[in-house]
Design goal:
Elements (H helix, E strand, L loop, with lengths): L5 H6 L16 H45 L5 H45 L15
């Protein structure tokens, strides 16, 4: 009796069905280059988004906190309470801005980088054929 393995079943198509077409895929070097580029592109996009979100969150938090501190303070103490409000607002706005920047740039970047990665991985192999291989006549 012949032992049937997964490899045997995959190599023999079912009766009446066409044989699965073989497709050349990217070489290991092409795959490494594609993943490396995807990691770099995604990391750069999310880090820039986080940086911009941090700056916007800090500025907005400082402005909102300073306005609230100056309005809530006594007239004589409006400058110190405005400064304290600015620092408090910035302490709240910076992490919220960083999170918002990460999400708002990370999601589109993940989609765009994923599409680019899929295209690079499904492209034909870019390694040249060996020089000793004779062309088919």
């Amino acid at each position: 009796m012949r032992k049937i393995t997964a490899y045997t079943l995959a190599a023999v198509p079912a009766p009446g069905l066409p044989a699965p077409g073989l497709k050349t895929v990217a070489s290991q070097a092409d795959q490494d280059a594609a993943f490396s580029a995807a990691v770099n592109q995604f990391g750069l996009a999310t880090s820039v988004g986080t940086l911009i979100g941090t700056l916007i969150g800090g500025a907005a938090g400082c402005a909102i906190g300073a306005a609230g501190g100056a309005n809530g303070g006594v007239t004589v103490m409006s400058v110190p309470t405005g400064i304290a409000g600015c620092l408090t607002g910035a302490a709240i706005g910076i992490p919220l801005g960083a999170a918002a920047g990460l999400v708002l740039t990370g999601v589109p970047a993940a989609i765009a980088v994923g599409i680019g990665l899929a295209q690079r991985l499904s492209a034909p192999d870019s390694t040249p054929a060996p020089a000793d291989a004779a062309p088919a006549v």
